[in-house]
């Protein structure tokens, strides 16, 4: 879309020599940094015309309209995503708590089994008799 075309990818995923002629490349790095690796913004004034595409404004607006209809309320999507992240973080926190509790119970079980062995009692026999 537009007069200039770019690929945007994680840093190093696509190399400049893998991009079609006339297309630019932008790498997205960590912490929301971006680097223009190739493209019209790096070309000198006399080379910029090599990067320009003939745009079809009507087709591009139709595509944008279609995409907006598919997305619907973008702010609602952002709110839903934030809620999903909060829910995921809560679930991950609960899973960590349960895992710590499980490890504690497992250690306590081992201590009790060792204590029973220490007095000559088989823990398996104790379990069978319950």
Q: What is the terminal separation in angstroms?
A: 73 Å
Which range does the strand content fall in?
Answer: 5-15%
| Integer count of domains | 2
Q: Which sequence of strands runs across the widest sheet?
A: 1-2-3
Structural class: alpha+beta
Q: Could you list some keywords that capture this structure?
A:
single chain, 130 residues, alpha+beta, 2 domains, three-stranded mixed β-sheet, elongated
Structural notes for this entry:
The chain has 130 residues and is α+β, with helices and mostly antiparallel strands. It has two domains: 68 residues, no CATH class; 47 residues. Helices cover 52% and strands 13% of the residues. The chain has three helices and three strands; from the N terminus they run βββααα. It has a three-stranded mixed beta sheet, with no helix packed on it. β2 and β3 form a beta hairpin. The protein is elongated and about 90 Å long. The relative contact order is 0.08.
């Amino acid at each position: 879309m537009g007069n200039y075309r770019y690929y945007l990818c994680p840093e190093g995923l696509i190399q400049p020599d893998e991009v079609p002629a006339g297309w630019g490349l932008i790498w997205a790095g960590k912490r929301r940094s971006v680097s223009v690796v190739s493209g019209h913004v790096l070309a000198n004034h006399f080379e910029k015309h090599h990067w320009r595409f003939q745009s079809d404004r009507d087709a591009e607006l139709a595509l944008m309209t279609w995409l907006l209809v598919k997305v619907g309320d973008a702010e609602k999507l952002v709110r839903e995503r934030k809620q999903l992240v909060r829910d995921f973080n809560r679930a991950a926190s609960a899973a960590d708590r349960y895992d710590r509790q499980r490890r504690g119970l497992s250690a306590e079980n081992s201590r009790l089994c060792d204590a029973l062995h220490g007095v000559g009692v088989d823990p398996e026999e104790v379990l069978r008799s319950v």
